[in-house]
Amino acid sequence: MQLTFARTLAALATLASVVVATAPAHASASPYQRGPDPTEAVLEASRGPFSVSDTTVSSLVVTGFGGGTIYYPTSTAEGTFGGVAIAPGYTASRSSMAWLAERIASHGFVVFNIDTITRSDQPASRGRQLLAALDYLTERSTVRSRLDASRLGVMGHSMGGGGTLEASASRPSLQAAVPLTPWNLDKSWSEVQVPTMIIGAENDSIASVTSHSEPFYNSLPSSLDKAYLELDGASHFAPNTTNPTIGKFSVAWLKRFIDDDLRYEQFLCPPPVGDRDISEYRNTCPHS
């Protein structure tokens, strides 16, 4: 009987060690973790768990970019939030990215959806404008008290996506970048140190993935946390209308790297398999 009891104790001890070893990676929560545990349904929905307000910033009161709209969570119970600046594409205004800006804010970010100084501004200029917008957001905006200025990211569409790469190369302290169907004449970004997810479109005839998104991704350092997602059958303008795949993976990337929220790693690693909206996905999993 004593032998049986000893074996039982040993078995229980082994079971306990297995339970501890297989505990979820997010058991030790990031201090920047915001919101409830994420699910596929929540990430694919049109709105996240936070209520959002917005405020307009006139181009007359800013320097270095064209003003814009700031979307921010109304809640102050969870502390400060990370910040994101978004730039539109060539000839476009901020209205083309409004759906995504508001959606990201509803997951717990302060998002500045900007207009550029002129609609023909090139990627290098758009990159500088994204950084000027972040500086305004953290230093002068009416919502700066809601922000953690050390946790910032950039996004943009087309030439705004090219500008996202430019901003990342210029400011390595950024936490995340998401270029959307990006366009840039510069194909080499080996200097970028910012975790970057590039979202391309399979049928893009303006910034084809073979000439833009794929070379950009391949040029990023192999040691960098990076991903390449290609939208199945999509055009260059896919980011300009509500798109659950863009919303889901943009939010997951920003949460993972701006908030250091490991709960979102499950949507990025291992790579999504069988998603009919994704024609290709590359990554450097596991992320550091």
From TrEMBL:
Indicate where this protein resides in the cell.
Periplasm; Secreted
| Presence of the UniProt keyword Isomerase in the record | no
Record-annotated PET hydrolase/cutinase-like domain positions: 27-286
Q: Coiled-coil annotation: which residues?
A: none
Q: What is its EC number?
A: 3.1.1.101, 3.1.1.74
Signal sequence segment: 1-27
Supply the Pfam families for this chain. PETase
Q: Give the domain of life.
A: Bacteria
Please list the GO terms describing molecular function.
cutinase activity
Keyword list (alphabetical) reads: Disulfide bond, Hydrolase, Periplasm, Secreted, Serine esterase, Signal
| Cellular component terms per the entry's GO annotation | extracellular region; periplasmic space
- What InterPro entries does the entry give? AB_hydrolase_fold, FrsA_esterase, PET_hydrolase/cutinase-like
Which PANTHER family does the record match to this protein? DIENELACTONE HYDROLASE DOMAIN-CONTAINING PROTEIN-RELATED, POLYKETIDE TRANSFERASE AF380
This one is known as: Poly(ethylene terephthalate) hydrolase
Species, as recorded: Nonomuraea soli
